[in-house]
Structures are given as structure tokens and as C-alpha cells.
Amino acid sequence: MSSDKKLLVIREWGEIHLGDVNKCENIDRIYLNKDAWENLEKFADSDNKEDRFLKFKNSKVLKVQNFVGVITTPDGTQIEILPKISEDADAEKSRETLTKMLKVVHNLPFIKSTEADLQIKNQPLSEVLIGWFLDCVDGIVKQGVRQDYSRIQAQEKFLKGQLQTHKQLNEPLHKQHLFSIEYDVFSPDRAENRLIHSALMQVLKWSNDNQNQKLVKRFLTFFDEVPLSANYQDDFFKWSNSRALNYYQSVLPWLKLILNQQSPFTLKDNNAGISFLLPMEVLFERYVVKILRKKYSLKVQISSKFLSEMPRAFTLKPDIAIVENDKLKYILDTKWKLIDENQVYKNGNPDKKKGISQSDVYQLFAYGKKYGVSKVFLIYPQWRKFSQPFGFKFDKTLQLGVVPFPIDDDKITDFSLEKVL
Q1: Rounded mean pLDDT of 6-25?
Q2: Could you please report the per-residue DSSP string of 340-403?
Q3: Is the pLDDT at 382 greater than 90, yes or no?
Q4: pLDDT (tens digit, 9 = 90+) per residue, 275-334?
Q5: For the chain, which terminal residue's Cβ has fewer other Cβ atoms within 10 angstroms, N or C?
Q6: Sheet with 327-334: strands ordered across
């Protein structure tokens, strides 16, 4: 993205207005010109309701849904969407929290954790992601750009390798002075390196960060003998999973993101800049799973029970099940929503439900009864207005715990479900 293009920052549930781009903006409201607006509004009309990251509030206002990431429109306008981690958190704090969560969730389709201080508070998310990609490339360069033998068929004036007798005998007279030969060349020209070279050239166009640009140019010197990929799909198909190339595997998801724009939303011009989006519900669930696996034995997305037994219908699929001695102990569901433990009604009376959705409670009740556990849990993000767990007792056999889960610390050591109920 060229330096004259605008970087806009908004968070979940914020509003994107069609109008004067010079109007006052904040983390919950931004303004777009007509060209950028028209490239976004079609996603609010998407047929796939599950994948809508935008919805119309009115004809000139789009409302961001619970997605985070980066979208770059064809004119180069870049919109960074950050999580809503509190009512008053600024962009720096939201970006810092998001990147910490992404580091924990290694298996997302574009994440590489790094110990390096990327100064994320002062960098757009797109530059942070490019920096993580370059960290992967650095690991490959340090271990050596992989070369291999490739078979070459050619016609040369000098004989080397193996003469292809059949071809030689069938050559016309005016080519009889050339040898039809086949030989092996030890070269870095292989699918993996072609894709890396192409991705480096792509991020060189996108990045405005001097350090990232400097790294890209240095890494390009290691791939100067490698041609650019002529067919991304074909080279991804040729990607080797051999043990000798284990140290290449971490860069593969990045290449798919950069070269294929792995996002549920594809804009017209992939060269405009990096684009990716993911639902915060998914990120939060995978983050919780990663943290809990350090302490508990887990099963994810189990689906062995049904709400109706005759006929078998309405599969029950809790997010997380904790197992002890091969038996289910707890059922957990994650919800990306800011709840207030001191919430009150308009008349000033305390809200005993504390803002929890009644349908979520019904869901956990069904999970607990059908899967035969005594405790079920709803996991919400911890924030200033929700820091203490609380619970509900359904009956003598089943309890519900409502748990605040830290989202700004990737080294949680004292979290324990046993302390909740």
C-alpha cells in the first residue's frame, strides 16, 4: 500500500459511514469515500449470512460484526478491525491483546508465534503479520534455502548427461549438429522457493514499514536464482511434506494467505494489500482451548448426543469437554461477549441474569443433562466489569459456572475451573 493511502482503525460493532473522509473519526466510527464504500457494501448483501462481517444500519452506514483482521480495498484504503475488549480500550491496547491471542493460537491459518518484540503498539496489524511472515522466512534462510536435483531435457552443442537416442535419430537434418540430452541440475528452482520468492515480492509492494522492507530486500538476495511462481495453485500442489523440508512448513500458511488471499471476503484487486478476517468467536474459543490444554485433558466439538432420541435429531455439540480418567467431567462453551457482573435493570434493581443470554443457559442445561456431567461452564472474556466467577444451580445434580477468562495474558498459571463452583 503506498504511503498516500489511508489507514483506518475500527473495532467490532463499530460503524462505517459513507461521507466526508475528513470528519472526526474514533475507534467506533470511520468514514469512507464513495469508491471504498462501494467495494465494501456488497459484503453486507452477502447470501451467506454466517460470513457477513458487515450489515447495513441504514443506506449510508455499515455496521461491523464480530470479525477482526485487515481489509484492503482496491484503491488501497486499509481498514484494520480490532476486538472490543472493553468499553474504553484504545486501538493500541486492543491490537496488543489481539496479537497476544494470535500468538497463543498457533494453528490458525496464518499465525506464527515469535519471541521478538515487534512493537505492535505502534504498528498496523498488517505490518505485524508481514513481520511474522518474515520471521518464518528468516528461519528458512538460516537453515539454508533448499536445493535439489531437477531433470533437464535440452538440445545442446556439447554432449553431457545422457543422450536421448530416440529423439536424436528423429531430429531433422538441420538440427543434427545439436545433441538431444537429459541431465540433472542441482538448483534452488523448486515449488517451495518459487512461492516464497513470489510472496516476498508481494509484501514488498504492500509494506510501508522500513524495517520490513529492509528484511524483504535482504531475503530476496537468497532467492535471486529462483524464478517467480508462474502458477500458484500448481506450485502449492507440488509442495513437499518430506522430513527434509520440515523447517519450511511454518511458512506455508503465510504463503496461502499472501498469495491466495485466504479470507472469506475477496476484493477485486489482490494487489491492493493484505486482507484477512476471522470471527472473534472462533479466535476466542481456540485461545481458551490452547490455554486449558496446558492443565486439562480436552475433547473439542464432541457430538455423540442428540436432543431428540427418537428419532435421533438435533445434535448437541459443545465447544469443549474436559475428560478425567476417560470420562467426561465438565462441559464448557465459550462466548465472545462482554458481560457486566453488576448489571442492573432500568429501575435500578440488580439483573440476576447479569446479561447472560437465556438461550445460552438452555443450551448448557441440555449439554449437562444429555452428557451426564454435574458441572457445565460458560466462558466469557474477562474485563473490568467481569472479573469474578459466579454460578447458578439448576437442581441437585447440575450446576452452571460463569467464568471470566483472561485475554491479555498468554502465560496463565493460576486459572482453575475447580475454584469456580
Answers
A1: 85
A2: -TT-B-TTS-B-TTTT--HHHHHHHHHHHHHHT-SEEEEEEE-BTTB-S-EEEE-SSS-EEEEE
A3: yes
A4: 778 889 989 998 999 889 888 999 988 888 888 888 888 899 999 999 998 899 999 999
A5: C
A6: 297-300, 320-324, 327-334, 375-381, 399-405, 390-393
